[in-house]
Amino acid sequence: MMDSKNTFGQKNGPEPSDESSMQPTPLNKKLSVKTTGFANLADVLDYAATGETGFNFYDHRGELEAVLSYRALREEASTLARRLLGLGLKRGDRVGLIAETDPMFQRFFFACQYAGLIPFALPAGIQLGSHSAYVNQIRRMLESCDATIAVAPHSHADFLQEAVTGLDLVMSGVPEDFDALPEADVEFEPQGSDDIAYLQYTSGSTRFPRGVEINQVTVLENLRAIAEDGLKLSEADRFVSWLPYYHDMGLIGFILVPLICQLSADYLPSRTFAMRPRLWLKLISDNKGTISSSPTFGYALCARRLRPSDYERYDLSSWRAACVGAEQVNPVPLQAFSNALAPCGFDPKAFVACYGMAECVLAVSFAPLDFGLTADYVDQDIMSNTGKASPVSKDAENVATYVDCGPVLPGFEYSIRDENGNEVAERQCGEILLRGPSVMSGYFRDEEATCAVLSDEGWLDTGDIGYRVGDNIYITARSKDVIIIKGRNIWPNDMEVVAQRVEGVRLGGVAAFSISGIGDEELAVMVVETKERDAGKRNELTHAITALMHEHFGINVIIDLVRPGTLPRTSSGKLSRFQSREAFLDRQPEPALRLPGAYLRKRKTA
Amino acid sequence: MNTRKNEIERRICELLASYLESSNHPELEAHGEITGDTNLASDFTLDSFQIMEFMMEIEESFDILIDVNSLSNSHTVSDLAEIVISSLDDTAG
User: Fold this and answer.
1) CATH for A4-276, among 3.10.129.10, 3.40.50.12780, 3.90.180.10, 3.30.70.2860?
2) What pLDDT score does A520 carry?
3) Is any Cβ of chain B less than 8 angstroms from the Cβ of A274?
4) Which residue has the higher pLDDT, A586 or A214?
5) Which residues in chain A have Cβ-Cβ distances shorter than 8 Å to B39?
6) In this predicted model, which residue has the larger pLDDT, A40 or A490?
7) A553 vs A158, which has greater pLDDT?
8) pLDDT over 80 at B29, yes or no
């Protein structure tokens, strides 16, 4: 399988005879796992390439479609790096990659590592009717970091071409276009520890894309900490993932972490998971995967699609770390998942709650391994009113449940502070600040945004709210504004801007926020001011906004039409999302919609 | 409109109705009949994962493979019928 032709992930790929003989890369039986002593990511790949492990790509039927060993990846990426350098690119130029689950992504990502270029992942997920919204999103990201190169898999070639029209790129195209370039006769200049390893866009923000800037030394430190301290990886581990490469959990957690430990990883396209979530279990079962992660919703989706015949089919006993992160960890659907899959050998102790963010590469904390989820039951009213996590019995009437996300990884310092910047007591909620060697250097070319979150002393204001018990962290609310739906971060500002395009919507008269619905699932709400009184026209307005939200964000939004002047504004005339939310909840007949973090959110936006 | 497309649209409408029923969508009754003009994204509150789930039911029912990227230009049941037709033709060819 070292023949490079077999590793390109072409859909019509290799000869049938090759396909039948294709085997996934094995467990690491050759190299001793080494996670330190690397100077940069290229160095990490160079070492892994001396073994037999690598990445394996499964198709929409769950069958092995392409194999990319680390050895082949090193060959192909360094050849490609020479071709890119032949274009006369400068060190540090940005390279945008539409991050489909395809070997193309790894090839270009590592070509950049050898060539001294900065790769960044562009989203690949396309929604119903989203053509123009998607193209604009790609264009804005390319523009915002002044990219010189953009690459798309064949499936996305037309979208990319449309997105780059009028942009001043050196080159854009599909992988074959780049493979046809001549190789420059150059020696690679190794990347220094302070060179930028990659940019990670933090959200699908359509209007203000922000690229988290991660240096070589920064990413290496977090990879090491995840491998050694968080997951305690060994030669016996194997990764399985359906997470998109354009999310930090997919890119860092399931490409770079296995690589730095010289372990094999198996991938299922995210869309395949969305359509056939049981293939995830099949892959873990077939390949004896040990590490696989998802936001809560992925486990819930999977549990919903199970069939009785599945119980005999899957053996999930190898799955030792089922990490749960990206959005708030919700124990109820996880419990349902583990109950349903207990007959397949799934061990609920495999659940590992994690906390992290792209601004810290990926991971900040892991709950202890082999423990499962540890829930903290606290009084919801006290929490809402004072931000104090006051323990109550599990069966108490007004109970809010939070999950122990463990202590921060060694190397991180954390501080939970009140609005005046003072450290709060144990079990008191506050803003979480972090400092340490895997905190980003800033947002790429965005000093204002960087200064807003990074202090001179190196403290990162995460925007997340939580409390501690001992040194274990419990998250009660993710970033003050961001709405997290099914693991995706959506910025209310983006939703508001889009909604204002609809005729009849008052400019500046839109507020988006989230509330917690049934089972603590986050629901997006949009309050819209309009003068329209005619019932039919109001209905049309609601429809038009709903359609736009789908097209741009792929989510359901509860639309609430109100009279102009209803939305609360601050003294400076700025719309207050928090107060809009409070007012919305007050209008609802059902007070149970109130979110436990209300007190804290109030404090943050006040 | 030709009868083949009519027939495919009708099947998609049925599939959508039974999908909405199984996923317990109260909007179904409020919205009345599902037709070719029914907009999948705005007439029901299906999120992107539910839409993919529904696409899988269409794939299984017609025994086709849908090019998911083609969905970016689709809004209605009628648009979906076009995609199904072109997938059926691809499979046959």
Assistant:
1) 3.40.50.12780
2) 65
3) yes
4) A214
5) 543, 547
6) A40
7) A158
8) no
Q: What does the domain layout of chain A look like in residue ranges? A: 4-276, 375-477, 485-605
- Hey, is the C-beta of B6 within 8 angstroms of any chain A C-beta? no
**CB nearest A129 (choices: B59, B65, B74):** B74
Rounded CA gap, A245 and A97, in Å?
Answer: 10
At residue A574 the predicted structure's pLDDT band, cuts being 50, 70 and 90, is low
By C-alpha distance, which of A378, A159, A238, A170 is closest to B72?
A159
- Reported ipTM: the value is 0.78
Interface with B, mutate which of A128, A272, A552 (most B CBs under 10 A): A128
> How far B35 CA lies from chain A's nearest CA (Å)?
17
SS3 assignment for A436-475: CCCCCCEECCCHHHHHHHECCCCCEEEEEEEEEECCEEEE
Q: How many residues are there in chain B?
A: 93
Query: What's the gap in Å between the CA of A545 and the closest CA on chain B?
Result: 8
- Domain boundary assignment for chain B: 3-92
CB A217 within 8 A of CB A193: yes
Q: State whether residue A554 is helix, strand or coil.
A: coil
A72 vs A147: CA distance, rounded Å: 27
Tokens read off for A87: 């274009």
CATH architecture of B3-92: Orthogonal Bundle (1.10)
Nearest CA in chain A to B23: A304
A155 vs B49: CB contact, 8 Å cut-off? no
With beta carbons under 8 A apart, name residues in chain B contacting A556. 45-47
pLDDT of residue A13: 39
Right CATH number for A485-605 from 3.30.300.30, 3.30.30.10, 2.40.50.140, 3.20.20.70?
Answer: 3.30.300.30
Q: A514-565 pLDDT, tens per residue?
A: 887 766 677 899 999 888 889 899 999 999 999 888 887 888 888 999 888 8
